[in-house]
Design goal:
- This protein is an all-beta fold.
- It is built from no helices and 22 strands.
- The strands form four sheets. A seven-stranded mixed β-sheet has the order 1-20-17-22-15-13-14, with no helix packed on it. The protein has a seven-stranded antiparallel β-sheet with strand order 2-3-4-11-6-9-12, with no helix packed on it.
- The two termini are 15 Å apart.
């Protein structure tokens, strides 16, 4: 089964310094039919103005993965961590029993664009932790590159406390990309840039998404090239 969510169907919030699009219920927006997809609870597409951001605030029992699309994001937390991340880097925070953190655009003149994803962990009460990893942004062409997974690789693939993986890929024009997974799994497909066709049957544009259930083989192709995010979920 494939359920499509078009970019224009997502809830949009504009606070001036912060512009957001929510793929699921979040903050003041609540849709009882769209609260999560498997353990994927939040996918927010955020634009943050220069020198703005979120002050210290708490989280508990959630795996939080942040992918910077452009600009420079600074993270600080109550564990003593501090890091700045741009495109090519991933931040992962396991909130566990509780942690405070802040997130700021530390550029004085450039906006920041990021995706923030929250996942329900596979166990409660873990010790809070934080890490930054880097993937080879020049090695995404026509392959699915894991950037966060239960199967972590130190410094390259962030560890997440859930049976899942987040992949990035840059599709070349006209070259198909195939993704396979066992029956009973879910996948969330999100088009970051460009346009793709899925199984030759439907087309997804920029910031469109597809929720896939019991689709064991997925064939993607782009006429002019595209960048995608794919999340394999239990």
């Amino acid at each position: 089964m494939i359920t499509i969510q078009r970019a224009g169907e997502r809830y949009s919030a504009d606070n001036g310094w912060l512009k957001s699009n929510f793929s699921f219920s979040f903050a003041d927006f609540y849709d009882p039919n769209n609260s999560q997809f498997g353990p994927l609870r939040v996918l927010n597409d955020d634009w943050i103005a220069a020198s703005e951001g979120f002050g210290m605030h708490p989280h508990r029992e959630m795996e939080i993965v942040t992918l910077v699309l452009s600009g420079l994001l600074e993270h600080k937390d109550s564990l003593g961590n501090r890091a700045a991340t741009t495109w090519g880097g991933v931040q992962r925070m396991s909130a566990g029993t509780g942690v405070f953190h802040s997130e700021y655009n530390i550029s004085e003149d450039e906006p920041l664009e990021l995706l923030q994803m929250w996942f329900i962990p596979d166990k409660q009460g873990v010790k809070p932790s934080y890490e930054t990893t880097e993937f080879d942004k020049d090695n995404l062409t026509d392959k699915l590159v894991p950037v966060a997974s239960t199967n972590a690789v130190e410094g390259k693939v962030a560890h997440i406390n859930q049976d899942m993986s987040i992949y990035l890929s840059d599709l070349s024009a006209g070259k198909p990309l195939t993704f396979t997974q066992p029956a009973g799994r879910k996948a969330f497909l999100f088009v970051l840039e460009g346009e793709i066709s899925v199984k030759g049957e439907l087309t997804l544009g920029r910031r469109d998404a597809a929720k896939l259930e019991d689709v064991t083989e997925l064939i993607l192709i782009s006429r002019e090239g595209a960048r995608i995010l794919l999340i394999d979920l239990p």
